[in-house]
Every structure is written in C-alpha cells, then in structure tokens.
Give the backbone structure.
Amino acid sequence: MRVSILCPDEYIEEVRSTARELISSHIALTTPLSHTGDLPQTHWFCTCYLTDQGIKKFHELKKYTTIYTGNPKVILKELELKIVK
C-alpha cells in the first residue's frame, strides 16, 4: 500500500533506524518540512510502499509518526507544511 509518513524532527533518528529496516534507506524520511518552507525543519516526510506488516511496525511507532494514505501534495497542504528548499 502506498503511504506517506510524517515524523517530528525531534524523533527522526529513532524512527529512521526502524524505517530503514522496512523501506529503502535512500527514502527513509529524507524530505525536510516546515510551515514556512524555510529552515529549521520541523518535520520529516516520505512516501513509499509498505506491506501490511510494515504498516503495523510503523503503527508501533505511532507516538513518533503519523501514517497517511492519499495524495502527498494534498496531505502537506492540509497540514500546512512545505518542503524545505
């Protein structure tokens, strides 16, 4: 299933260590976000495909991550987050 994963900046290292076991390390929450699109980043984001087992594992990290389904651009717009460039 295609999902988007959002993680607050303060938990990114812990979540990435688990995420790399489930998804490719080159996409494991590597997109920085903020409300303004400027540094400092406040969140990290990625869109990937996960198995049901992978989704369950991320749900175990629920206190650190939020999983969304749907169009990533719409999700970011609704959350009022922009990619840091």
